[in-house]
């Protein structure tokens, strides 16, 4: 129902509007017609206006004509007048031209005069030039003659050159012959050299034979002396034994104070007999002095840099100094002459020790240890330690086992035959180890460290047995070293404030503080003969000999 | 009764209003005679601008000519009210004919009093605060009337399907065809009077068919299955409907769920609850609620006595110049009585 309603309503609506459509259409048609008509009217109006304008123009012209006769006569008159005006103009132009011509004539006369003058000058010049021309011709002929002469000279020179060329060829041939000769001579020379070398070799072989003979003879002799020595040793040992029983005791007073060096003293060592002191310093000297009197015996020179450690050989005949100049030098004590210079380290050599078998073990800041054979004079073995070595000591006389103290706070034990690391002792110190000393009975190790603690280490177990420290004890140098007393009862070390500390080895109790030095004490040694004789060095040149009383 | 009926849509497409346009007193032109023409209800005012310019500004004779350039905005007023050109002409006419005008305007009492529709043309003092500019900007490639139309189309599509996929899926030419058929219709309708009316109707009918060949894809699949849940894929979720209650009041737009038994009255109940007392529709309070709507479908079957209710009503609903019976099914109305932008523009009278 709604559907129908809607449809019907739509239809209704459309019907309602549709009626307008036709009305609108016609209205629009009418409107457009009206518009067209309007525009047509406008157009017509415009046409009318145009026609009116034409009419007005015609009227105006008519009036004009009436005013001034017939237009034809008027035109002729005007023409005549124009002609007259033109003629007048022409006349004026003519006059003007005439005056101009007169002016121009004058100018021409002037210029002609000038030209004549010029012509005269030209003629003169022409005469001059022809004269010059004739002289030039003469000169040209002369030049031709000269040229001919030169041609003759050239011919002569050419002949000469040919002759020289010939000579050159001859000379070349001579030169070739000379070269040939030289070659021959050279061959002869080589042959002679070969012969000479052969001769030399033979000679060398003979020399070797002789050497061998001498060596065997020396060995024989040595064996004999050894036999003799062994018997002597037994006697010595027997003689020493009672002396060893005599205990050491702490010194109480400075017996002597010496100033040996010109610079700082770095190291001190005493020989086995307790008679000689060796000190080395930054003045590059190694000084040997009497252990009792302090008198200087000899000054050993040769080092290029400061000496950092000294050691006496087992036979007491040589003294060794290690130096910052990367070398190790060995002097003869009896002759004061330099015996060996061991070079090979590429860093400062901080420590070196003689072994019983005429060898040297050295430790350097180039992170290596080197074993040297003094018989042959060269390096036998190089051990890489991974850390700079500050000090080393032998665990046995042969030097097969050595112990080294390092910059990285650790202690290392090495087998020098194989070069292997036997043991690494870590964690004992919190600062770099400046010194390592093995006790006389080879049971203990004493380490000195920049952490201001001395440690006693059992060699069998590598465990810390005892620590020595004091509030006032401060290690002053990277190369400060401590020592055992000769009987092993005490431990002595120097401090930065110039005092020497003495501890009881077994109890760790501090026995004595000796105050004599002014500056940092960097080394103490105890006389092997025992008693209270010990020696300390300070940085500032001083050496003090200690004892019980003067 | 939910299918598209070409006879009805053809009626809607061909619907036109007789319009008389006269020039405003303060503007000058070559022609002061008013222009009479039949304006299509589905078309928009800017589409008639060429016809209007041709009438008022054609050169005639040697009288002083007034020329206007391309960028001059033409605008129209009806009794001092500027006409919103983005509303279809039919909608403008319906609102001005039937709804209450602002107080200073005398309210129109009868439906046909606005036929023919006399409106005034202005070429100066464009009221930029009340109207949008409709002149295309070539540099921006915009054509405001077309863009407004396409936006409106997408909006209605979104309301129906909660997506504009269908519009976006149309090819460019198909999208353009929707607008071009309207503008071509305007040109065909504005032809000279020499062509007879039968020929004109045939031409408009052909354009209508062309328009629906594309638009059927947007409006076509309305096969509402009562057993399938509301809101399924491809289902119509809501009907795109707007209710205009006055010239200077915003239109009312709510989501109205479709259903076989949902009538225009239900829609009005949702859009303007104050108009329809609850006693008029037994279960009307839930008619527009999409969730409960379906539950009440069975109860709503009993609303056969709507005719008596309509008789008692104090309002009427107008679109395309005709009053719509309140018992008309909403879906059918949406499919057949929508404007080309697929909105059902209803005017409350």
TrEMBL record, chain A:
The keyword Coiled coil applies. GO terms for biological process: autophagosome assembly. WD repeats lie at residues 258-299, 300-341, 342-382, 398-424, 426-467, 484-513. Residues 6-208 form the Autophagy-related protein domain. Signal peptide: none annotated. The keyword Endoplasmic reticulum does not apply. Residues 41-97, 147-217 form a coiled coil. GO terms for cellular component: Atg12-Atg5-Atg16 complex; autophagosome membrane; phagophore assembly site membrane. Keywords: Coiled coil, Repeat, WD repeat. GO terms for molecular function: protein-membrane adaptor activity. Belongs to the ATG16 family. This is WD40 repeat-like protein.
Automatic annotation (TrEMBL), chain B:
It holds the Pfam family ATG5_UblB. InterPro entries: Atg5, ATG5_HBR, Atg5_HR, ATG5_UblA, Atg5_UblA_dom_sf, ATG5_UblB. Residues 239-348 form the Autophagy protein ATG5 UblB domain. It is found in: Preautophagosomal structure membrane. It is a peripheral membrane protein. Residues 146-183 form the Autophagy protein ATG5 alpha-helical bundle region domain. It comes from the Eukaryota. Keywords: Autophagy, Isopeptide bond, Membrane, Transport, Ubl conjugation. GO terms for molecular function: Atg8-family ligase activity. The keyword Ribosomal protein does not apply. Residues 12-123 form the Autophagy protein ATG5 UblA domain. One of its GO terms (cellular component) is phagophore assembly site membrane. GO terms for biological process: autophagy of mitochondrion; cellular response to nitrogen starvation; piecemeal microautophagy of the nucleus. Belongs to the ATG5 family. Involved in cytoplasm to vacuole transport (Cvt) and autophagic vesicle formation. Conjugated with ATG12. PANTHER family: AUTOPHAGY PROTEIN 5. This is Autophagy protein 5. It comes from Rhizoclosmatium globosum. The lineage of its organism: Eukaryota, Fungi, Fungi incertae sedis, Chytridiomycota, Chytridiomycota incertae sedis.
């Amino acid at each position: 129902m709604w559907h129908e309603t809607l449809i019907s309503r739509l239809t209704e609506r459309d019907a309602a509007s549709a009626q307008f459509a036709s009305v609108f259409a016609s209205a629009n048609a009418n409107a457009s017609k009206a518009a067209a008509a309007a525009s047509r009217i406008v157009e017509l109006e415009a046409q009318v206006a145009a026609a009116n304008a034409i009419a007005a123009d015609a009227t105006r012209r008519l009036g004009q004509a009436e005013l001034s006769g017939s237009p034809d006569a008027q035109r002729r008159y005007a023409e005549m007048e124009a002609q007259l005006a033109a003629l007048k103009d022409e006349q004026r132009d003519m006059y003007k031209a005439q005056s101009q011509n007169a002016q121009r004539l004058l100018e021409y006369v002037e210029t002609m005069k000038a030209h004549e003058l010029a012509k005269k000058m030209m003629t003169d010049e022409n005469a001059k030039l022809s004269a010059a021309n004739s002289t030039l011709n003469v000169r040209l002929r002369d030049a031709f003659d000269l040229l001919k002469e030169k041609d003759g000279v050239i011919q002569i020179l050419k002949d000469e050159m040919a002759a020289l060329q010939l000579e050159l060829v001859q000379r070349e041939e001579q030169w070739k012959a000379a070269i040939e000769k030289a070659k021959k001579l050279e061959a002869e020379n080589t042959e002679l050299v070969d012969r000479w070398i052969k001769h030399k070799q033979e000679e060398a072989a003979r020399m070797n034979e002789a050497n061998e003979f001498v060596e065997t003879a020396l060995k024989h002799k040595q064996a004999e002396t050894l036999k003799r020595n062994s018997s002597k040793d037994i006697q010595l040992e027997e003689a020493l034994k009672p002396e060893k029983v005599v205990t050491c005791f702490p010194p109480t007073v400075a017996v002597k104070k010496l100033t040996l060096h010109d610079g700082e003293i770095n190291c001190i060592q005493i020989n086995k007999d307790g008679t000689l002191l060796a000190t080395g310093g930054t003045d590059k000297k190694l000084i040997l002095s009497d252990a009792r009197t302090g008198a200087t015996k000899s000054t050993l020179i040769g080092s290029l840099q400061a000496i950092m450690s000294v050691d006496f050989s087992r036979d007491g005949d040589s003294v060794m100094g290690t130096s910052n100049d990367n070398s190790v030098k060995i002097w003869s004590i009896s002759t004061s002459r330099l015996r060996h210079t061991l070079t090979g380290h590429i860093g400062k050599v901080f420590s070196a020790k003689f072994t019983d078998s005429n060898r040297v073990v050295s430790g350097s800041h180039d992170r290596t240890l080197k074993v040297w054979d003094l018989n042959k004079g060269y390096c036998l073995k190089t051990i890489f330690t991974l850390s700079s070595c500050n000090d080393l000591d032998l665990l046995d006389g042969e030097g097969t086992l050595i112990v080294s103290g390092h910059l990285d706070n650790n202690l290392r034990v090495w087998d020098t035959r194989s070069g292997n690391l036997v043991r690494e002792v870590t964690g004992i110190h919190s600062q770099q180890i400046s010194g390592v000393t093995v006790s006389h009975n080879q049971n203990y190790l004493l380490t000195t460290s920049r952490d201001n603690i001395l440690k006693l280490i059992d060699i069998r177990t590598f465990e810390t047995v005892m620590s020595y420290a004091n509030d006032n004890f401060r290690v002053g140098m990277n190369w400060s070293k401590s020592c055992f007393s000769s009987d092993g009862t005490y431990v002595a070390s120097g401090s930065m404030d110039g005092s020497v500390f003495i501890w009881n080895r077994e109890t760790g109790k501090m026995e004595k503080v000796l105050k004599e030095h002014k500056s940092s004490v960097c080394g103490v040694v105890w006389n092997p003969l025992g008693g209270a004789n010990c020696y300390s060095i300070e940085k500032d040149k001083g050496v003090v000999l200690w004892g019980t009383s003067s | 009764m939910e299918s598209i009926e070409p006879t009805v849509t053809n009626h809607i497409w061909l619907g036109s209003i007789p319009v008389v346009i006269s020039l405003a007193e303060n503007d000058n032109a070559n022609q002061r005679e008013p222009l009479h023409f039949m304006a299509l209800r589905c078309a928009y005012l800017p589409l008639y601008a060429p016809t209007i310019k041709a009438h008022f500004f054609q050169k005639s004779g040697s009288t002083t000519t007034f020329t206007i350039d391309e960028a001059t905005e033409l605008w129209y007023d009806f009794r001092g009210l500027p006409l919103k050109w983005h509303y279809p002409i039919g909608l403008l006419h319906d609102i001005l004919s039937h709804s209450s005008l602002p107080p200073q305007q005398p309210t129109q009492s009868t439906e046909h009093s606005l036929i023919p529709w006399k409106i005034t043309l202005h070429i100066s003092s464009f009221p930029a605060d009340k109207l949008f500019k409709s002149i295309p900007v070539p540099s921006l490639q915009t054509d405001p009337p077309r863009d407004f139309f396409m936006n409106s189309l997408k909006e209605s599509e979104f309301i129906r399907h909660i997506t504009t996929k269908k519009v976006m899926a149309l090819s460019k030419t198909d999208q353009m065809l929707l607008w071009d058929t309207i503008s071509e219709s305007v040109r065909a309708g504005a032809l000279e009077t020499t062509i007879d009316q039968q020929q004109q109707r045939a031409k408009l009918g052909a354009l209508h068919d062309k328009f629906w060949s594309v638009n059927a894809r947007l409006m076509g699949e309305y096969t509402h299955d009562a057993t399938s849940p509301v809101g399924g894929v491809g289902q119509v979720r809501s009907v795109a409907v707007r209710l205009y209650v006055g010239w200077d009041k915003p239109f009312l737009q709510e989501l109205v769920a479709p259903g076989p038994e949902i009538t225009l009255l239900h829609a009005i109940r949702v859009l303007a609850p104050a108009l329809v007392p609850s006693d008029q529709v037994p279960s009307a309070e839930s008619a527009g609620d999409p969730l409960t709507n379906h539950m009440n479908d069975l109860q709503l079957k009993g609303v056969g006595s709507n005719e008596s209710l309509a008789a008692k009503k104090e309002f009427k609903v107008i679109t395309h110049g005709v009053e719509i019976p309140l018992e008309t099914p909403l879906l059918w109305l949406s499919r057949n009585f929508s404007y080309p932008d697929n909105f059902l523009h209803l005017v409350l009278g």
